[in-house]
UniProtKB/TrEMBL annotation:
InterPro entries: PhoX (IPR008557), TAT_signal (IPR006311). This is PhoX family phosphatase. It comes from the Bacteria. It holds the Pfam family PhoX.
Length: 606
């Protein structure tokens, strides 16, 4: 069973102040260094990066752009070597190419570079001495090192594989697709594979104006422009690959927006997109076991007024590590029940959007998981199972799920079984014609977001009912609409726009932010979840100018924080020639993954 939490153990570091410095800031007694930056060689034989001599062939062997979620998988029992797996969410062409002017002026080869800079990297890394610092392995076979790109063949699994909605001219079977796009967050499975969420896939498609009329409502619900041939802000990929033009290939967009599974230990593995987990702007998927050994995946759809989901497998995990156990476990995400969350409010009439606590002293209530599909059976009247899984947003609309403030990472705490969701912000909450504040999204014009805690009934993650509470309403603690679980507000760090979530070895929550609306740089925060220190948010790290603190992963020995610094220098008007950030090398900005460690070698945070 879950181990009890240690109340606030291990978070004695002195918090750093908010700042706007163009570097990574860590507490006194800590250090950090780049492990891999955009363009660094990944596949053995990859050329050294040269900004003025880029090619798609080179990029497909080098570290991709805009590293987001990351995780490490140990390769030995001594904690000396590991595989680092990293998502590459999207590209900033203005920051990538010297002489950049407009999207239209990109060469077709530059478009292909951008396509190759998407996907994932798998890289063998090693510890430096007995420290918490890690570096890439640069010699030997490095047989696991691999790049996944927008062109890597992948296979669909589950009830909607082969569906008419997934068939295209290039794939009349509807079972194979090239590439994974906009890989944002992810999760580790108990059988040693990783999951990766395909998020804002809509921006890669044009030609939505010319699809059959019956296909338009679903495309529109997913943010695809069905009025203009070339929507502003589209990425021009149709110039390099015609499948991104929906006027000729109307189903291609249905082949993105999935949870993808990759086995980093098998360099020849064909990634799988699991249709049983539904299709939306998947932030990520994080797994915990139900009491009976079935697998439960928690997921968010990152859009204003979209939903929280969970998937419960039909079959149970096999704990052995024989090949047949592993083969069984690799099928667990192919069949199960997909649910969407409906939140009940105990004091909704008292909620006025100001963030003021209701009369019972807490934002809290009950809730239930509404099933949308079970195995091959649709549970939504008027929709086939294929439609429920491919147009999951429409299915969730039909059953009246609760519209949330942009669900980003949804992460179960493996120590307690409680589930935490980062609701990053929603400035349209309470606006004219938009849903009003409610108890689970309690603030109108929610610029700074909040953290939600779900406790499944009976302590079983397969339960269909739950209770919930909001431990943290983010912002400047001087702002009366903020809440830090009742902790002394004069002692907490300001925090805005929570995005990615992780837990340390003690069960403390680590929060990465994206889009700090308080005017300082984004960063990484730690907060105890239980005991008298619950709500004591402390800032651990800040990232450079224009960067997003995209993801952090605490190592199992708690001696390293692996941190993903995404899009440094992403400021309006900036370019590679006129950079807003010169991190990490002093010339122009490059996204990078760093390790953070304590100079005395002891545990992070303690
Ligand atoms: Fe890619 Fe929702 O963050
Ligand atoms: Ca309440
Ligand atoms: Ca994110
Ligand atoms: Ca985000």
């Amino acid at each position: 069973g879950p181990r009890p939490p240690i109340n606030g153990a291990g978070l004695t570091f002195k918090p750093i102040p908010p700042n706007t410095l163009d570097t990574v800031i860590v507490p006194n007694g800590y250090d950090n260094a780049v492990i891999l930056r955009w363009g660094d060689p990944v596949v053995p034989g990859a050329p050294a990066f040269r900004a003025d001599r880029q090619s798609a062939a080179a990029q497909a062997t080098q570290f991709g752009y805009n590293n987001d979620w990351l995780v490490t998988l140990p390769l030995d029992r001594h904690g000396r070597r590991a595989l680092l797996v990293v998502n590459h969410e999207y590209t900033n062409e203005n920051l990538m190419f010297p002489g950049y002017t407009t999207p239209e002026a990109l060469t077709v080869e530059q478009v292909r570079v951008a396509m190759a800079a998407h996907g994932l990297s798998v890289v063998e890394i090693e510890r430096v001495g007995d420290t918490g610092q890690w570096v890439p392995v640069t010699r030997g076979a490095r047989r696991w090192n691999r790049r996944i790109t927008a062109g890597t063949p992948m296979r669909f699994t589950g009830p909607a594989a082969g569906s008419a909605l997934l068939r295209t001219a290039a794939d009349p079977s509807g079972t194979m697709v090239l590439g994974s796009l906009n890989n944002c967050a992810g999760g580790l499975t108990p059988w040693g594979t990783i999951l990766s969420g395909e998020e804002n896939f809509n921006q890669y498609f044009v030609g939505g104006d010319a699809v059959p009329a019956g296909a338009k409502p679903a495309l529109t619900r997913y943010g695809i422009d069905t009025v203009n041939r070339y929507p502003s802000g589209s990425r021009k990929w149709e110039r390099a690959d015609a499948r991104f033009d929906l006027s000729a290939h109307p189903n291609e967009a249905n082949r993105f927006g999935w949870i993808m599974e990759l086995d980093p230990h098998d360099p020849n593995f064909t990634p799988r997109k699991h249709t049983a987990l539904g299709r939306f702007k998947h932030e990520g998927a994080e797994i915990i076991l139900a009491r009976d050994g079935r697998v439960v995946a928690y997921m968010g759809d990152d859009e204003r007024f979209d939903y929280l989901y969970k998937f419960v497998s039909d079959k149970k995990l096999r704990r052995g590590d024989k090949p047949f156990d592993r083969a069984h476990n690799m099928t667990l995400l192919e069949s199960g029940t997909l649910y969407v969350a409906s939140f009940g409010f105990s004091s909704a009439p008292e909620i006025d959007g100001s963030g003021t606590l209701p009369a019972d002293g807490a934002f809290n209530g009950t809730g239930r998981w509404i099933p949308l599909a079970r195995g091959r059976q649709s549970l939504v009247p008027g929709m086939s199972v294929d439609e429920v899984l491919v147009h999951t947003r429409l299915a969730a609309d039909a059953v009246g799920a609760t519209k949330m403030d942009r669900p980003e990472d949804v992460a179960p705490n493996l120590r307690t079984g409680k589930v935490y969701a980062a609701l990053t912000n929603n400035t349209r909450r309470g606006a004219t014609g938009q849903p009003a504040a409610d108890e689970v999204n309690p603030r109108s014009n929610n610029r700074h977001g909040h953290i939600l805690e779900i406790t499944e009934d009976g302590g079983d993650n397969a339960a269909t009912t739950f209770t919930w509470a909001i431990p943290i309403v983010c912002g400047d603690p001087a702002d009366p609409s903020t809440y830090f679980a009742g902790y002394d507000k004069t002692k907490v760090s300001p925090i805005s726009c929570p995005d990615n979530l992780d837990f340390d070895a003690h069960g403390n929550l680590w929060i990465s932010t994206d889009g700090n609306a308080l005017g300082s740089n984004d960063g990484l925060f730690a907060v105890p979840l239980d005991g008298p220190e619950r709500g004591h948010v402390k800032q651990f790290l800040t990232v450079p100018v224009g960067a997003e603190q995209a993801s952090a992963s605490l190592s199992d020995d708690n001696r390293t924080a692996f941190v993903s610094v995404q899009h440094p220098g992403e400021i309006d008007g900036a370019s590679m020639d006129n950079p807003a950030s010169t991190w990490p090398d002093g010339d122009y900005a490059r996204p990078a993954v760093i390790s953070v460690w304590r100079v005395d070698g002891r545990q992070i945070g303690a």
